[in-house]
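Researcher: Hi, I'm a grad student and pretty new to this. My advisor asked me to get structures for two proteins we've been looking at. I'm not sure of the right format, so I'll just paste the first sequence and hope you can take it from there.
Model: That works fine. Here's the first sequence with its C-alpha cells right after it:
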Amino acid sequence: MVRLLPQDEGFFDLFERAAGNLLEGATQLDRLFSDYTDVPNKAKQINNTEHAGDHLTREAIEKLNRTFLAPFDREEIHALVCRMDDVLDEIDEAVSRMMLYRVKTPTDDARALGKVLVKCATLIQEMMPLLRNLKQPQQLLNKCLEVQKQESEGDRIEQHGLAMLFESVSDPIEIIKWKDIYGDLESATDSCQDVANVIESIVIRHS
C-alpha cells in the first residue's frame, strides 16, 4: 500500500512498548510458577506491570484522540492496545486469585499455561516492528497463525487441568479455586489470539 501522507511513528513506538510490557508480565508469571517463593513480592511485580500496561493504553488512546492522521483505522489501534492490556489484566487476575485462595503450589497445567503465554507474548512482541511498513505481510500472518495454535494449546491444557481436578481432587473448594485460576489463564491466551486477530485484520486491510 502506498502512503501518500507521512504517518505518526509515535504509535508504533507505543505498540512496541506495550508488547514489551506484555512479554514482561508473561515472563514474570512464568518465573513465579517456576519458583513459587517470595510470592507476595512477585505478585506485586506483576501488578506493577499490569498498571504500566494501563498507563500505556491510556497514553495510546489519548494520542489517538489528538491525532489527525493515524497509521491505521482508529478502531484497529484502539482494539490493538486494549487487547494487549486485556492479557495483562487476566494474568494479574490469575495471580491475585492465587494469593486470595492461598494456593500452596502451582499445578503442572498452570505452569504449562504460563509457558503458552510467554510464547504468545513473544510472538506479539516480534510482530510489532513488522507493522511499521507492512513489507512482510506473510511473516506477520504466519506469526498470527502461530499465536492461534498456541491459544488452541491453551484450551487443551485447561481441559486437561480440569479433568485432572475432577479425577484426583476430592475437596470441592479446591476444584472451584483451580477452575477459576485456569479460567483466568486460559482467558489470557484467548486475549492473545484477539491481539493476533486485530493484527491479521490490519495486515489484510492495509498491506
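Researcher: Oh nice, that was easy. Here's the second one.
Model: And its structure:
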Amino acid sequence: MRVVVTGATGRLGRALVAALSDAPFTGPLGPLAWTRADLDLDAPDPGPLMKRDRPEVVIHAAAWTDVDGCARDPAAARQRNGVATGLLAEACAAGGVDLLVVSTNEVFDGARTDGRGYRPSDPTGPVNPYGASKLEGEERARTAFAGVGRDVAVGPQLGIVRTAWLYGPPGHDFPSKILAAADRARVAGEPLRAVADEIGSPTYAADVAEAIVELVGSGDIAGTHHVVNAGIASRADWARELLRQADLAVAIEEVAADTWPRASTPPRWAVLDPTPLPGGEPLRPWQAALADYLPSLLRQRAAVG
C-alpha cells in the first residue's frame, strides 16, 4: 500500500513515518514522506504530487499548530489549516485516494462542565482562530468527499482523527518546557507555577501514530475518530507527574490560565472521549506514555545543561 504522510518532519509526522516503516502493509520501501518542500501550505499544489507518487492513502498531518501565531494571523491560519486541507481533499477525492485528516480538540469550545469528554457527534464551536481553521479543514474535506461514492472495499474514504495535548520528539513541547521552568524555579528558590483550570488528556505522538497505523491497516478509516491517551489531567497535574517521574523536588503552585495573557484563548475543557480502535484496545494511560518519553527528555536536558 502506498501511504503518504504530509508534514513528515513535524511532531506527529515523524512519529507516523517511524510507525508506518514497521507496518507490513507499506512494503519494504515504507511510507512516502511529504515535507514542506513538497506541499507548502501557503501555496499548495497537490495535483502534481499525486501524479508523481500515486498514493493509495494520504495521512494529512501537516498543519500550522502555533495557536498563538494563528490568533495573531487568522488569515494565514485559515489558508494553512483550512484552504490547504480542502485542496488536498479535492485532489484525493478526484483521484480515488483515501484521506485521513489529523485535527484537534480545539474544534470544540471547551465550555462543558459535566465532566464528559467530547464525542465526535457533539456540536463543534471553536473559540480561537486555530480551532476555527482546523474545523474549516474538516468541513472542506467532508465537502470534497461528499459527492464521491464510497465502497469500503475500494474507497475513496475520508477519515478525521482528532487528538489533544500532543507531545513528543523533537521536544519544544509542554514536558520539555516544564522541565526547563522547574530548573529555573529551583535556582530561584521559588515554586513552579502551573495552570490548574485547563483540563485535558496529555497524548504521546508515538501512541497516536500507532493508532493511525492500526486504522489504516484495518482498511476502514472512514468517520471521525477521537484518539488520546487514557485519563485526564490539569496542566498542573501533568507537571506534577512529570516532576515525580523525573525525581525533581520542586514545589508546584497552581494558578489560573489567565495568569499569563496569550494571543489565543485555549479551551478550558480539552477532553476528548476516545473512540474504539479496530483492535478494541484503548490507548494506554497518559502517565505510562509519559514514562516512555521521559528518558529522551532527560537526555536532552542533560545535553543543554
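Researcher: Is there anything I should tell my advisor about the second?
Model: You could mention this: The first strand starts at residue 3 and ends at 6.
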